[in-house]
Amino acid sequence: CYYFDSDWYAKVDQLDLRLLQFCLPAGLLFSSLALLLCLTGMCKTACCSKTPDDIKNSRCLVNSSGCHLVAGMLLFLGGAIAMPPSVWFLFHTRNLNERYDNLFAVEFGVYVAIGSAGGLILAALLMFMWYCMCK
Question: For this UniProt entry, which segments traverse the membrane (predicted)?
Answer without folding.
Answer: 19-39, 60-83, 103-131
